[in-house]
Sequence to fold (249 residues):
Amino acid sequence: MMTTLSVNVNAIAMLRNRRDLPWPDLESLARIALEAGASGITVHPRPDQRHIRLTDVPQLSTLISRSFPKAEYNIEGYPSEAFLDLVCRIRPDQVTLVPDDPAQPTSDHGWAFETAAELLAPVVGRLKAEGMRVSLFADPDPAGYEIVPQLGADRIELYTGPYGATHSDPDARDAELSRLSLAGRRAQALGLGVNAGHDLTVPNLPPLIAELPFLAEVSIGHALTADALEHGMAGAVRRFLGALSGSEA
Fold:
């Protein structure tokens, strides 16, 4: 099973929002990414709409359902009532729940499952009842992972930010890779699917896949968008797909 690529388009939306103009065109670039072989699109709508706007969410859902019915739509967010109402209306293939404070610039930690179980249990139940796969954002530390199946979640998404931050330090990279390997294998042993995301790049994907060949999905936005400035969106997607398959150095 090859790990699939979901393209996070938040960075594109943030660039668009710098001006009161309709470009870069989010729907057009999502279409290019899917045509180039991406398996899905990820969005993370935040309350302040600083990148993905609420109007973007149904627009991208329509694009996928009409033009790319085999692709998946993944919506990330903190399980506020407004967020839950949104995803229950859109019904994406996957909902990734993150423990973000609304003021955070980006996701930077996973759930503390021991203390969050009371919050998460009814949320997961509600989303599963609506037919959505549920993934929970997780630190690369298996403490508390045994609670996740009890909550009814299908997957975890390993937070790979610390791994991505080791781009110029091989020793630190190896240490973080070991943490991810231990966490991912513990999740797999518990019967959970394993996703990964945050600061993944063309160079650091192959070692991650070698350690965790059972990864179901990686969600990539910042580095892929940066690559697209040089290679175009289609070229960037192909580069990341190559890194996932081992054919891109």
Remarks:
- The chain has one domain: 4-245.
- The chain has a mean pLDDT of 96.
- The beta strands are 4-8, 40-43, 72-77, 94-97, 133-138, 155-159, 193-197, 217-220.
- DSSP finds ten helices and eight strands in the chain.
